[in-house]
Amino acid sequence: MGKMRKLLFSILLLGLFITLFFVFIENQQAIHLPVRFISMYDYPGIEPYVQPVLFWLSAVFIVIAVLLLIVTIFYPKKSSTLTVEHKNGTLKIQRRAIENFVLKIVQKEPFIENPMVKAKMSKKKIRIKIAGNMRKTMSVPEKQEELIDEVKNEVSNLMGTTENIETEVRLQDYQKDSANQQNKVQ
User: Fold this and answer.
1) Which domains occur in the chain, in start order?
2) pLDDT digits (tens, 9 = 90+) for 70-100
3) CA-CA distance, 156 to 149, in Å (whole number)?
4) Which stretches are transmembrane (predicted)?
5) What share of the chain is helix, strand, coil (3-state, %, to 5)?
6) Can you spell out the DSSP letters for 39-77?
7) Which of 40, 149, 158, 177 is the most buried (most CB within 10 A)?
């Protein structure tokens, strides 16, 4: 998690803590606790700020809750099969079939060692992640672009249509990942 995400997440959690703390204080009479807090209006120096702060924090958290609800409802469903409609019938393709198909293509390439393929499929999109150890040669970036284009074309040919399905291919180098992890540990 990056520094900006941590900062934003910490600010949101602090605001949520403040809101819930004052709600807890004002509603403590609903249950008998061995500890009794004074009313939020009796804390010195913060009385004029409590109500506006609570109002705006509550408004912000209501908006965030509504946005999260909308994202949850409309988030695309991931599945293990992709159904393609043709005029001659339907074609169902398994995620594992796509992964093995792409793995056979990638294993032919000499610049990538120990390739591993992961595919994520939703209704209209296929995301393919190819990971492995990239050999250090002069023409690796050009070969990587050629491999990405070849995989996209072969997957489109496998399905027999390019109309409705978007294919995204990403290459990842294990050596860079392991070097980044070693730098973080030290």
Assistant:
1) 3-74 (no CATH), 81-185 (3.30.70.1350)
2) 988 887 777 778 777 777 778 788 889 888 9
3) 11
4) 54-75
5) 55, 20, 25
6) PGGGSTTTHHHHHHHHHHHHHHHHHHHHHHHHHHHHSPP
7) 40
Q: Would residue 171 be called left, alpha or beta, if left means φ above 0 and alpha means ψ between -120 and 50 degrees?
A: beta
Rounded Cα distance between 39 and 1, Å, is 38
Q: Please give the distance of CA 9 from its chain centroid, rounded to a whole number.
A: 16
Token pair in block for residue 15? 């605001």
CB within 8 A of 103, min separation 6: which ones? 115, 116, 117
- Which residue from 166, 75, 80, 149 is spatially nearest to 120, judged by alpha carbons? 80
pTM over 0.85: no
